[in-house]
Amino acid sequence: MRRYFDDERATFGFHQGPKSFFVEEIPATRWSHKGGYLILKLQKRGLSTWQVVDLLARHLDQRVTYAGLKDKNATTIQYLSIPKSGYKALKRFYHPNIQILETFLHNRPLKIGDLAGNRFVITLKHPSANLFALATREAQRGVPNYFGYQRFGPKSLDQARKILDGELFIKDRRLENFLLKSYQSSLFNRWLAHRVLLDSGGFKRLEGDVYQSPRGYFSSPQILKDHIPTGLLPGSRVFLARGRAREIERLYDEALPLAGARREALFFPKDLDVSLGGGKARMEFVLPKGSYATIFLESLIKRELTHKGIK
Fold first, then answer.
1. CB 76 within 8 A of CB 42
2. What is the pLDDT of residues 87-96, one digit of tens each?
3. What are the residue ranges spanned by the domains of the chain?
4. Which SS3 state, helix, strand or coil, does residue 251 take?
5. CATH number, domain 29-113
6. Pair 147, 298: CB distance under 8 Å
7. Residues catalogued as catalytic
């Protein structure tokens, strides 16, 4: 099934790893530099956010919170928070793949979503000559905001289906939540692929689409070309589309034991810069929180990426 708007593609090689994939969080928070919590700005390599959180929590015997999950196979700079009482123990913490760059006080702990976006720097091998032109066009038109392969484990969807059918019980609540959210994300991806197929020229707006404003979500009988439609993450207490948009949305709506949400159908990479030389390309860009750099790459090569990368 076609997942993007047309078949024009670039070619390149890519394998995600600490040397080829860099991401830095852009905080949405204005730091108070006083209060009862310590913010850690740290760099990690070859570790997931969960692994770093667990290492710190065990060493400090404190609760560690974070603003966003970052890839394991990357070099990442991100922010975590701990109670300031953990400062002395933190000074004794060491791990060869974790470097604490900066610490400062804040008046509350971080929570998921305390991000404005993420800045990426990605190295590609043997890029085709049309890479920059195509990346520029896709960034201007908007990239379908799929969840990337990092969202899904090798058997996560099958396991989630068994949980929902009462055939599998998992004691680890964090793992169970991850599996169910993977399934929820797969429903969004299927909806988005359906909507992409409606028009090869770009994302086709429909009567009854749901949009987001500073005041919340709203549905419009009008076609609002200056707004980005949102797709459904099925669950409870969520705003539903109407009319023709709901007819398609209903095909991918299931009763899940999760809070429902909505996700924008497109993202627009900002501050795009592509430099070519020595048989390589260096791509730098900024994405909104929750959007995947690997999906931007997929939109350029018109094929799905996996952890194995592209030769």
1. no
2. 999 999 999 9
3. 29-113, 146-264
4. helix
5. 3.30.2350.20
6. no
7. 71
pLDDT tens digits, one per residue of 131-172: 999 999 999 999 999 999 989 988 999 999 999 999 999 999
Burial of 129 (0-12, 13-18, 19+ CB in 10 A): exposed
192-213 average pLDDT score: 92
DSSP 128-190: -TTHHHHHHHHHHH-EE----GGG--TTHHHHHHHHHTTS---S-HHHHHHHHHHHHHHHHHH
Neighbours of 10 (CB within 10 A): 21
φ and ψ at residue 262, rounded to 5 degrees: -130, 155
Residue 308 pLDDT grade (very low, low, confident, very high; cuts 50, 70, 90): confident
Q: What is the dihedral of CA 197, 246, 295, 287, to 10 degrees?
A: 130
Position of tokens 């929750």?
290
Q: Which fold has domain 146-264?
A: Pseudouridine synthase (3.30.2340)
